[in-house]
């Protein structure tokens, strides 16, 4: 059964995207990401030296020949900072598929919507393929799509909170109106959260802390991989209608009489 996952004309096998931060060691990073089955890994440009090469570097543990790097602007608080950071990334590694993240609230780490829109306009004009992290506001998501984002990534809950999908109806509204992939980003805490996002019709899930902060990150990576696959299959299968009354599992016609 063909079910292609395509972003900006590129096809990926896994609908689970994972981050590269917060792990205890580079060795753990390597093995957990491998276990997740992810094709796309996000890299915080302000926290990782992508120019580093050789043993112990990120590119040694997570080779770009195997994974698609998705540079992100975590830690940027203005449109100018985000755009400048991504320009440097393109000069360094030729990356044009990027995750835009402009933070406006230092406590909840909510995106600054106005700055995100401003940066998106500049980046799209310069030929970047922008995947934008944003709020779960349908109007904002539509504006980002109209500007030219190749994917929109509404938060499920605050970054690193593990609260799961706090407002599923808002995510569903964004999915229903969109013609670009919608990926839940931020707030996923466990496998059931990821599965729910996929059952709702999200094209994918991006997470980091849910793996890195788990008691057993490797086992959680396996769980997330299975959850995303199960949720996608359930969405494609189409769930049975919900009923307020019971319905027998076996046919009631033609019962064998005593």
Note the run of SSEs as H and E.
EEEHEHEHEHEHEHEHEHH
Q: What is the typical, i.e. mean, pLDDT?
A: 92
Q: What is the share of helical residues?
A: 25-40%
Alpha carbon gyration radius: 20 Å
Globally, the shape reads globular
Report, as a whole number of angstroms, the end-to-end distance: 45 Å
Number of strands: 10
Which structural class best describes the helix and strand composition?
alpha/beta
Q: Note poorly predicted spans.
A: none
Tell me the fraction of residues in β-strands, as a range.
Answer: 15-25%
**Number of helices, counting only DSSP H or I runs of 4 residues or more:** 9
Q: Could you give a short account of the major beta sheet?
A: 5 strands, parallel
Strand order of the largest sheet: 5-4-3-10-9
How do the helices and strands line up, and which of them pair or pack?
Blueprint (H helix, E strand, L loop, with lengths): L4 E3 L2 E3 L3 E4 L6 H11 L3 E5 L13 H4 L6 E5 L6 H15 L3 E4 L12 H13 L3 E6 L3 H10 L3 E4 L13 H10 L5 E3 L5 H10 L3 E4 L1 H4 L4 H21 L21
Parallel strand pairs: 3-4, 3-10, 4-5, 6-7, 7-8, 9-10
Antiparallel strand pairs: 1-2
């Amino acid at each position: 059964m063909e079910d292609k996952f395509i972003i900006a004309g590129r096809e990926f096998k896994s609908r689970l995207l994972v981050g590269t931060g917060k792990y205890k060691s580079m060795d753990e990073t390597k093995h957990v990401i491998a276990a997740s089955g992810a094709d796309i890994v996000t890299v915080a440009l302000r926290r990782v030296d992508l120019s580093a090469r050789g043993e112990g570097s990120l590119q040694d543990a997570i080779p770009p020949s195997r994974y698609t790097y998705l540079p992100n602007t975590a830690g940027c608080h203005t449109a100018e900072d985000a755009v400048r950071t991504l320009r440097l990334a393109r000069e360094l590694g030729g990356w044009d598929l990027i995750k835009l993240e402009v933070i406006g609230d230092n406590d909840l780490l909510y995106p600054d919507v106005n700055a995100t829109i401003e940066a998106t306009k500049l980046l799209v004009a310069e030929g970047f393929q922008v995947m934008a992290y944003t709020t779960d506001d349908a109007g904002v998501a539509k504006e980002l799509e109209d500007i030219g984002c190749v994917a929109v990534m509404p938060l499920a809950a605050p970054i690193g909170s593990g609260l799961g999908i706090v407002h599923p109806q808002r995510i569903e509204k964004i999915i229903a109106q969109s013609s670009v992939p919608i990926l839940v980003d931020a707030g996923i805490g466990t496998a059931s959260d990821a599965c729910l996002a996929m059952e709702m019709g999200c094209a994918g899930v991006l997470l980091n802390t849910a793996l890195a902060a788990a008691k057993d990150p490797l086992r959680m990576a396996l769980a997330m991989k299975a959850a995303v696959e199960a949720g996608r299959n359930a969405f494609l299968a189409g769930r049975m209608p919900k009923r307020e009354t019971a319905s027998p599992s076996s046919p009631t016609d033609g019962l064998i009489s005593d």
